[in-house]
Amino acid sequence: MASRSIATFDRPPARLTRIARTRSELRDALAGVDRPIGLIPTMGWLHDGHRALIGRAHSADATTVVTNFVNPRQFNVARDYTKYPRDEARDLAICEAEGVDIVFAPDASEVYPRGFDTTVSVGAIAEPLEGAARPGHFDGVATVVAILFGLVGADHAYFGQKDAQQVMVIRQMARDLALPTQVIACPTVREPDGLALSSRNVHLKPAERAAAPALRRALMTARERWVDGERSAERLREQMLAILAAEPLANVEYVSVADGETLVELERVDGPALLSLAVRFGSTRLIDNEPLGVSPSTA
Length: 299
Ligand code: AMP
Fold this sequence. Notes:
Bound molecules: adenosine monophosphate
Strand content: 15-25%
Strand order of the largest sheet: 1-4-3-2-5-6
Structural class: alpha/beta
Distance between the termini: 36 Å
């Protein structure tokens, strides 16, 4: 139970958190709040990665809004949606302890009311990697984030670098649609052994959990080769694959060395790049990434 307990000590004193379940309750809750407003979109099952985003919002924004919505439109596999972990009471307790001002926790019918018939589809940046592996995923993400940006009218929205392509897709959408919310990427929060925190980690069996830090090891090994001067993208991919191949429970979906701006696969790493991978452990699919060099997309 220790790792799932809610640490309330050494945190700011709890503030009153308003819960809105409908668009109109959200409008009421937002009426007259102080700006800037910071938005943290989540699918719940909150962990320290989400807490870090909330903390970042607190440092810049007068009002913080967390959305807690498991968005059916971004799951291309129905079973993945139904088995996504949910514990709203615990999530609300965390938001209270973290001093979140407003939690928007709507039903799907509130986000997509009867007659809803629009899809936001971002172009080339949404096509490779997660876009190719999970068809329709980024349409679902972009559509829900556009709705949340519209409903909350936030000045800033915080996203995790753990989902690097997602940040790039949302930035592109916000820029193209002239949405006034500024998209801010925050560093990936990890377990001490390097595994990126993810709501999906709860599904890992003990042996799979023990094997999962191989993702980070693969990324870090490739990074070391790059620091040592390796510029062949294929050699870096081979390095990552070799580390993952040594882990019998790891089923690799992809390893990528892509341009840091366009996510097009590289032959040579001569500028900012993104190392990324997707690996299955049993039925649990994990992703992680590591930027090489500074690019405006990953900064
Ligand atoms: P999710 O609830 O998984 O949809 O994630 C909500 C937000 O939290 C997204 O912007 C994620 O990128 C971010 N996030 C998830 N895991 C982490 C992590 N380990 N570190 C930092 N941000 C994260």
